[in-house]
Amino acid sequence: MMVTRPKTLYKTPPTSRGNSPGRTPPAPAKNKAPSPSRRIGRSPARSPLKTPQDDKKAKSPQTIVKPLTRTPSKRSLGSRGSSPAKTPQSRGSEYGSIERLDETSTNRRILSTFKEGEDNINVVVRVRPLNNREARSGDETVIQFPGNGQILCESGSGQKPRQFSYNVVFEPAATQEDVLQFSGVKRLIEMSLEGFRCTAFCYGQTGSGKTHTLTGPPGLFGKKMAPYSDQHGLVFRSFLYLFQLIKERPEKHFVLKASYLEIYNEKVIDLLNPGSLRKPLAVRWSKKARGFFVENLFTVDCEELDDLLAVLEEGMRNRSMGSHHMNENSSRSHTILSVHITSEQPAENGVFISRSGKINFVDLAGSEMTKKTRSEGKTLEEANNINKSLMVLGYCIASLSDRKRKTNHIPYRDSKLTKLLADSLAGNGVTLMIACISPARFNLAETVNTLRYAARAKKIRTKPIVLMDPREALILSLKREVAVLQSENEHLRSALNGYPSSVADQHSVERPVIRTPPKIDPEKLAELEGPQLIELVRLYISENEALRTENEELFTSRDALLRDQEVVSRENERLLKKLEDVNSDESRACVRSPLINAQSAISSDLSRYTGDLESTANPNIWTNPMDEPQKDSSHLPESIQKELDKRMIGENILGKVGNHRRHNSWDGRPGSNNSARTKSSGSEGGKVTGRQSRKEIETKSSKPVDDGRPRFSIGNKEIFGSSISIDQDDDDLFDRN
Ligand SMILES: Nc1ncnc2c1ncn2[C@@H]1O[C@H](COP(=O)(O)OP(=O)(O)OP(=O)(O)O)[C@@H](O)[C@H]1O
């Protein structure tokens, strides 16, 4: 087995161990039966999960400004279903490739469903401290940190410093944990679990701290590696975070696979399979995935954190390192460590949706000024290849960041690196660039170059999407639409039911019968034959169409009803206005008619009404209507009587809105003959008809009496000494008969 790990390091109880790369040779593992029910990350909490960093509260770096503010992506529903068949240690798969996606492609497996919208590449800058050599030579810092994600870089004698701005800037004092917490890499990990393809890559001149940032200082992965070291880089910490997230989602089923490659002198080498004498692997174009992939790249099943860490160690041990004047431990290759994450989650109505996310960690080799690094021989050849591929990357970044040039040719094919990074740079992924720079004057030219690169990269936009099986995605989207339409229709129907049947009938139309498709067993979805699937989709489409039609009709009905209601309300207001006018005429004649108490239940303007009343009489003086000369209803002007009759216009709606019964304060008053009168008029239980009650109102004067009834008041004012209580049984309040 090529991937090994020191047993002293990440100990896991044997019972919980899975197909760890450190133990199982690839060939037998290949034949191992798939274990769909097995889970990843369910082993007892292991030591690396409890590093001192976890206990230590993440320091708020003085150095960091404007952390990324993106909201974490939405969590999907938890799930557990049939797991995808396992292909341990698979060869010849397209894992390890950077798939290029095409929404228009009719290829299976490729379909976008959830878009995050366009997203700029996030760019953060990490400035390392001056190193010993620089400090010894008395070199000085040419970088300033004005804050707010900005960097000032000296530009030469007497000239104004250049200013650059980024998402986040890490000053030399920032710790490895700070980078995890504030670079935005956590968001990438969360998104990769949701099915997005994410990439974090480090860019910068040689010796600027790329490897330090990603994996830690040299020697960390040697024989005496400290598992709890503060120096662990972003990859180690990201793995911990990844498994922490997996642990928090026990209801979901995740399958993780990892691959690790390097591009050395334009050759792709499998870092997990060095036994093949570093035989270069081919980078090919996949028609199906519409992207480049590495043929025969090893992928390792990672059921536990230990497995991922073992992959990291193995790759670190096998990558090409060299030494030159500027860095004793210089990476001589670009490396790509990829973790493929497949998850299954339930959608509505028992359908399961699987998603395939990925996170790539890319450690680019540093650009070199060979004069400065004093490279020669093998190191010089490496340097030339490194510089060449970085130059192509630079062209691609420049083309992509220039909106005018973006439509033109992007030279991805000019290097293996750009072929494999194509999707991260301009595809459907989410990308984080960590630009590493030295603060020393000695490196000023390279630093300015890196900062320019980084500023350009910030302008590049990608279109993050989640890939799903088109069949699953289609069914899911149809189901969602059906659910939305159903609830909307339900709502409209209940709104319609609130109106009298005559009104509802007036707007109702014949609807087609809606056939609900049969329930699908998620387990069997993949086994369905073509015609069965077509039939299923056809059923969903027809159900969808029928619901749409019904939805439109209901909306039309609702609009018509709203218009009717509007007309009624306007009419009501007009009448109230008339009544107010009449009332003010009568007040002038010192005659107050109790009729002005009448208030339509559908009028929403009671306060205006009372306000007007106040304006017509001194609110501080209560006038007992009993003391005032009474006006018999027969003396009411005919116009008022007509208006009152007209007020019946809202009766249907009134009947539904609240069944308000207006009681006068004398109702039920001891000694009042109201009940007797009611009885004598043939009404039951004190129930009066609209006409009757109006007549009584017309002929009786009101008198404020504390009769124990709840008083209906507006703005702390009772309406003319009347109390209004709600009576369930008052449909005929405005009955004309
Ligand atoms: N932020 C930092 N704090 C402390 N030491 C650092 C920091 N960044 C880098 N160093 C140290 O500087 C040295 C060079 O760093 P590193 O090897 O990571 O650079 P690099 O950019 O990966 O270089 P190359 O491109 O040559 O591989 C290492 O000894 C590393 O530990």
TrEMBL record:
ATP binds at residues 204-211. Coiled coil: none annotated. InterPro entries: Kinesin-like_fam, Kinesin_motor_CS, Kinesin_motor_dom, Kinesin_motor_dom_sf, P-loop_NTPase. It is found in: Cytoplasm, Cytoskeleton. Residues 727-737 have a biased composition (Acidic residues). It comes from the Eukaryota. Residues 13-22, 70-92, 671-682 have a biased composition (Polar residues). Keywords: ATP-binding, Cytoplasm, Cytoskeleton, Microtubule, Motor protein, Nucleotide-binding. Transmembrane segments: none annotated. Pfam families: Kinesin (PF00225). Residues 120-460 form the Kinesin motor domain. Its main location: cytoplasm. Residues 628-638, 693-710 have a biased composition (Basic and acidic residues). Residues 1-101, 615-638, 655-737 are annotated as: Disordered. Belongs to the TRAFAC class myosin-kinesin ATPase superfamily. Kinesin family. This is Kinesin-like protein. It comes from Nicrophorus vespilloides. The lineage of its organism: Eukaryota, Metazoa, Ecdysozoa, Arthropoda, Hexapoda.
